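RETRY 2/3 - previous attempt timed out on the joint model. Re-submitting the same 712-residue input unchanged.
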Amino acid sequence: MRVLVIEDEERLAANLVAALREIGLAVDHAPDGIGGEQFAHQGVYDVIVLDLMLPGKSGVEVLRSLRQAKITTPVLILTAREGKGSIVELLNTGADDYLSKPFDLGEVLARIKALIRRGKGAAHPVMLVADVEMNTLEQTVKRAGQTLDLSPTEYRILEYFMHRPRAVVSKRELLEHLYDYDWEHHSNVIEAHISNLRRKLDANGAEPLIETLRHRGYRLREEREIQ
Amino acid sequence: MTTRRSLTKRLIATVLLLELAAAAILVGAAVVHERQIRMAALDVMLRGRADTLLGAVQDAEDEADDVMLDRTGLSIPRDDIFRVTDEKGRVLGDSRAEETAEVAAALPSGDGINTMKIAGHRYRVIRFRGVRVVDPGRTGGGVAHIITAFYGLRADHVWHEVFEAVRFSVIATLGLLGITALVMVWLVRRGLAPLHELASHAERISLREGRFETPEKAKETAELSPLAAAIESALARLQRSLEQQRRLTSDAAHELKTDLAIAKSSIQLLAMRTRTVEEYQRGLELCMDDYTRLEKTVQQMLTLARVEHGDRIDRSTPASCDLRTCVEESIRQSRQLAELRQIKVHFGQAEESIVPAEERDGLLLCSNLLLNALQHSLPQTIVEVGIACAEGEVLLTLRDRGEGIAEEDLPHVFEPFYRGDPSRNRKSGGTGLGLAICKAICDRAGGDIRIANRPGGGAEAIVRLPRSASVSAEDSGRLKPAVGD
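RETRY 2/3 succeeded.
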């Protein structure tokens, strides 16, 4: 999952980015409204963390332009402003959630995870697809009751598939959503990770879960198709 | 509680008093006039009666050819008094002997009409003389008798009649006065209605809304429109300063919350998982930096509050410091930063410049301005600091060579937390309060500060402070440029 942090306060942004990366998210950072808007318009983010007081372009303006461009990425607003009025205005403009500064870092992370889940249509932190059970809080994966030992990248790839069962996911999409600009990424890296993931998932001779669709990408199969 | 004077009451009382005086004069004039007329009429009657009396003096038909008063056909009212005497002093006839004697004694000699008081009554008495000739047909022309007489009419009723005649006008005037008073009370109330309306509008002023609509009536009233305008402008000023306070509070809250958010998140990030000793050390350093920043912001806020609103009890012993030593000290303190940024600070010769500010404030002013200049200077440039003393004032100037200040930011640089270029504000390490503190210090000392861009790049800060009397400052008569070259 990939997060965009638009925050002009360098130290705060650094802390946020570091924390988000620690929970296994790909993070891009924009220090001002204009750059942040450009990033956001690419539509590759699963959640956007937006500060309100930004140089160049205010957070509200960025939000409005995103919603006008039909970009529905969930947006979490960080604000130091007081008052219910501005919060109502923000939510009406299209914000999905907000947190007042000074916030609790754990709360920010939890809300970001919740926004990602809800953005993908899953309300519960434990997801079930076929006989795979993924706990996004503990970051553990079980197949048929058996706990699997996945690397962080493998986990992230599987998480992305779990959010989009039966949908065809291209390599490009995976790259866009799993890596930020700070990473050097090549499509064969993805292939290597998927190959490892398949090996671990199908270790006990189970049905192959991830199928390859030539020139189109990958797909996570649902239970019905397996049986 | 002091009794309040009512304009309405005073106005009404004044007008009523004037009216009353006018009425009194009018009534007095009417009385005098009426009396005059009545008296004239009385006198005419008096003369008529006197003539009749004289006409009644007849030939007595006796040897001595005397005259007598023939009372037949003479009807004299009971109240009238008269006496007729001939030249020999013989009384030919009188009304009541006692009274007439009294009158005769009191009556001044000579003909004419007099007013006198007899037996408790006021009389109008005429004294006259006539000649009566007995047997004028006889040879020798007959005997001439000189008749002296007086006749008096009671005049008491004249006054009575005068008052009767005037009474109506007096009552009418008083009635009119009463009606005018009532009408005036109503009119004055009505006339003052715009004032009451203005007052009730002013009563409803709420600082939260800060709106004051002058009622139309008050706007149209010449006497009230300046008051209304004054209320409006006072409210606007109050509103502005309140707005400033509100913004300052909200900006301060924003600043503190941001600093707190950073400090808190740094610690929470560090605590997310177990880390290596090196990671902890690095994290703690960052936390320390964040807290230092927070501390600095709080410190600056407190300084601003102290300078802006600090108690002014020590006015009796005015604070003073030497601006020159403040500049020297601030240059000493910022030497490291200047060296780091490869900037030279030039401070020309200056005389002792005592200004009415506390020493810490003077130092704060100089070091804030100098740090500002150093931060915005390009490397390998020169910051020029100069002090010039003129009659009664000290001029401190700081000139740097840097990017200067954006034109649109110039009017706002002294506003607390003003973020001209927000992305730069925090990176430069400033809290956004430095210049606001400088301005507050200058204001408190009774001086001013301005910042302008220099031709050729860079900015110039000019501080003007009143010069305090000092033992060694007696020779400062003219402006002495203190900046080198």
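Chain A touches chain B through 27 residues (CB under 8 Å). Closing ticket.
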